[in-house]
Amino acid sequence: MSLSSRSAVAIHALTMLARWDRSLTSAEIADSLASNPVLVRRILGSLRDADLVLSTEGRGGGWLLARPAREITLYDAYTAVEAGPILSRHAHPPSDACEVGRHMQNLLEMEFQDAEQAMRERLGRTTIDHLVQQVLASERAHQRH
Fold first, then answer.
1. For residues 127 and 70, is the Cβ–Cβ distance under 8 A?
2. How far apart are CA 52 and CA 122, in angstroms?
3. CB 81 within 8 A of CB 65
4. What is the torsional sign of CA 85, 15, 23, 30?
5. How wide is the angle at C-alpha 24 spanned by C-alphas 20 and 25, nearest 5°?
6. Which of 1, 14, 45, 81 has its CB surrounded by the most CB atoms within 10 Å?
């Protein structure tokens, strides 16, 4: 698969911004991710380019959601930071001299397109607001134990 952790970082950052509903610095987000602020800033830059977040500079500056969390889907986050198809295709055409090679690209293309459509639909049903609600419910359950 061509998936990277960029999607997970982007979704995590968006969920933090929605949860705290205030400007957060890339360092604050990086702390939650146990990650490097430079990596987080790169991801946030891609989210800004996709009009999912806004940045403010200077004292008290940071990152904010550009629109309500209920209007941002996981698929929005995914497409903001990932390039290319979800599933890798053949790097070069297989052998036409082989009966498997002759047909595999077309067969896989149909399967991969169906799988990618299913992923788009699934990620498109879940919003950042939904994740915030799940985080809050999980945290309440955690505090009871």
1. yes
2. 19
3. no
4. negative
5. 155
6. 14
Q: Mark out the alpha helices in the chain (DSSP H runs).
A: 6-20, 26-33, 37-49, 74-81, 99-125, 128-144
Structure tokens at 144: 């009871």
Displacement of CA 13 from its chain's centroid (Å): 9
Give me the amino acid identity at 142. Answer: H
Q: What is the pLDDT along the chain (145 residues), one digit of tens a residue?
A: 345 689 999 999 999 999 997 899 999 999 999 999 999 999 999 999 999 999 998 887 899 999 999 999 999 999 999 987 778 777 888 888 999 988 988 999 999 999 999 999 999 999 999 999 999 999 999 999 8
- Angle value at C-alpha 125, between 139 and 48, nearest 5 degrees: 80
Residue-level length of the chain:
145
Exposure of 139 by Cβ count < 10 A (0-12 exposed, 13-18 middle, 19+ buried)? exposed
